[in-house]
Backbone:
């Protein structure tokens, strides 16, 4: 999966984001760039987080931006990766709701989406790998981690 992020140009590395909304928008840029999703998708995600709260922060330091409720403008099923150097807060005062790693989901094929989710869950279950992802700073780092962990 890490190699796929690089091969598909579905990875982004940035110093910081103004706030969580900016981070969500940034995390969608690589999916927009190749036509996987349309521009409206990032705003749909933001509206859902505003409506339901920070459900996309699935564990400390990790967000999974996605929107099923109004997933118009999704043309392919994919996952993108984004790493920020400085965390953004989805709930000020609750550090458990800060994120630096973003796995942005786009889904229009339920079977492929379930496969992606399964592979992502496997990746996220490796605590050592997740810690090393937080130190990644460029696509080559993802390739090195892929060789180390997925060999």
Residues:
């Amino acid at each position: 999966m890490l190699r796929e992020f690089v091969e598909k140009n579905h990875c982004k590395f940035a110093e910081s984001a103004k706030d969580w909304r900016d981070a969500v928008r940034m995390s969608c840029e690589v999916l927009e760039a190749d036509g996987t999703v349309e521009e409206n998708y990032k705003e749909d995600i933001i509206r859902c987080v505003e409506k339901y709260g920070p459900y996309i922060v699935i564990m400390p330091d990790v967000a999974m931006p996605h929107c099923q409720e109004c997933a118009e403008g999704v043309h392919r099923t994919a996952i993108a990766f984004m790493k920020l150097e400085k965390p953004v807060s989805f709930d000020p005062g609750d550090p458990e709701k800060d994120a630096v790693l973003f796995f942005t989901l786009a889904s229009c094929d339920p079977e492929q989406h379930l496969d992606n989710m399964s592979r992502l869950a496997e990746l996220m279950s490796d605590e050592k790998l997740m810690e090393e992802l937080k130190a990644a700073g460029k696509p080559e780092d993802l390739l090195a981690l892929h060789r180390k962990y997925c060999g």
Notes: The longest strand covers residues 78-89. The radius of gyration is 14 Å. Helices lie at 2-7, 20-33, 40-52, 110-124, 127-135, 139-150. The CA atoms of residues 13 and 26 lie 10 Å apart.
